[in-house]
Amino acid sequence: MKIKAIVHPAEEGGYWTEVPALPGCITEGETMEEVIDNLKDAIEGWLEVANSRSGIAASAQVVEIAV
After folding, report:
1. Tens of pLDDT, residues 22-46
2. CB atoms within 10 A of CB 28
3. Domain annotation covers residue 1
4. Is residue 27 part of a domain?
């Protein structure tokens, strides 16, 4: 899956980033490499929480697709 994020320079140094498609999904890091690693964790965590709150019926199926 590819998803767009916006990386901003932080006033105190380093970076912070947000994912417009996932409201509230933000993270930070001292280096670009660190912020990207943290971003992957933040997106995975956001999606896990969203999936656990979806109230999927017992008769439904969950499938994963790559886009």
Report:
1. 999 999 999 999 999 999 999 999 9
2. 17
3. no
4. yes
Residue 25 lies in a domain: yes
Stated length of the chain: 67
Look up the pTM and report it.
Answer: 0.75
Within-domain flag for 26: yes
Return the HEC string of the chain.
CCCCCEEEECCCCCEEEECCCCCCCEEEECCHHHHHHHHHHHHHHHHHHHHHCCCCCCCCCCCCCCC
Q: What is the DSSP letter of 52?
A: H
Paired tokens of 63:
């499938």
Domain that holds residue 33: 6-52
- Give CA–CA dist 29/45, Å, rounded: 17
d(CA 66, CA 9): 31
Amino acid at 24: G
